[in-house]
Amino acid sequence: MTPPRQIAMLVFPEVMSLDVVGPLQVFSSANDELDRRGLSPAYRLCLLGDAPGPVRTSAGIQLCAEACWSGYDVAAIDTLLLPGGAGVDSMRQRPDLLEWLRRVESTTPRLGSVCSGALLLAASGLLDGRLATTHWSRQGELAAFAEVRVATNRLHTYDPTDLDGDSHIFTSAGVTAGIDLALALVEADLGQALALAVARQLVVFLRRPGNQDQFSACLMPEVAPTSRLRDLLEWIPANLAKPLSLEMLAERVHMAPRTLSRLFVRDVGLTPARYVERVRVEAARALLEGGQVGVATAAKLSGLGHPETLRRAFQRQLSVSPADYAQRFTAAAGQ
């Protein structure tokens, strides 16, 4: 019988609790699914702290570390995950921890991070020359490590094939992206069918590609209260059936098209056309996830018109086709 893979998670004061329990629940649910099939567990979970005992999270609740990381048998670890949270800032100033991470890297098959835990990997030098991501609000700090290749719009950088990421050292974006990362690890270990069953139990999408955007298009812009775009940004999602050309948008806010384009780039970070496409894709996603319409209807209702237009927009924004996106939900519902 193959022994379970040991999944170790570092915990420290002011750790983000969901960064810890979200991914670990994925592995635990994989064990539950295997048990339902009469199979042995694939994973053993372990929390490592400065010392055995309770660790206070940023949510105020406590987690219990099973062992001390500094004296732990690192050869027993299959996968070590580093979560994020406010406590990362003090932990990355710890030479003893950074040296331990460098030692772990040489013996552990998989070493990854969730959210701002990437800053621990960067401080240890283990992300030098590697593709990495983190929560969007801390990407500037990650980019301060000159040798790190920061990917600003990715959910995670794990790839078991080493073609679009890394199978050995990898990172993930904010909070729930750690669940996506854990599902990708389960899929690599146990196959897509098992990972799909886990995703269904957790009521999550299996699996958002690692190179998918971190943002929801409808929630992304946070413009200043004084921005002349505020009313327009609220109007666009409710009017997707309209052409929404640059000229139409400019006329609605009584601006010259060139002026509107400049304001969009300044306040939203996107051109008007790029932003409208993102909102249309977001609307199509919601329609497909509901399972009530097909690709052709989703294309029409989102204002993209033709299924091929929707397919190209999905590939640009989400790196997946609308049909594959819809199929994942259909498959999950039928499991």
Mean pLDDT rating: 88
**DSSP helix fraction:** 40-55%
Number of individual domains = 2
Text of the CATH class of the largest domain:
Alpha Beta
Contiguous uncertain segments of 5+ residues: none
Fraction of residues in β-strands: 5-15%
One letter per element, helices H and strands E, the order comes to EHEEEEEHHEHEHEEHHHHHHHHH
Shape: globular
Number of helices: 14
Q: Architecture of the largest domain, according to CATH?
A: 3-Layer(aba) Sandwich
Q: Taking Cα atoms only, what radius of gyration do you get, to the nearest Å?
A: 22 Å
Assign the CATH topology of the largest domain. Answer: Rossmann fold
Alpha carbon gap, first and last residue: 27 Å
Could you state the CATH homologous superfamily of the largest domain?
Class I glutamine amidotransferase (GATase) domain
Strand segment count: 10
Protein name: Helix-turn-helix domain-containing protein
GO molecular function: DNA-binding transcription factor activity; sequence-specific DNA binding
InterPro entries: Class_I_gatase-like, DJ-1/PfpI, Homeodomain-like_sf, HTH_AraC, INH-QAR
Pfam families: DJ-1_PfpI, HTH_18
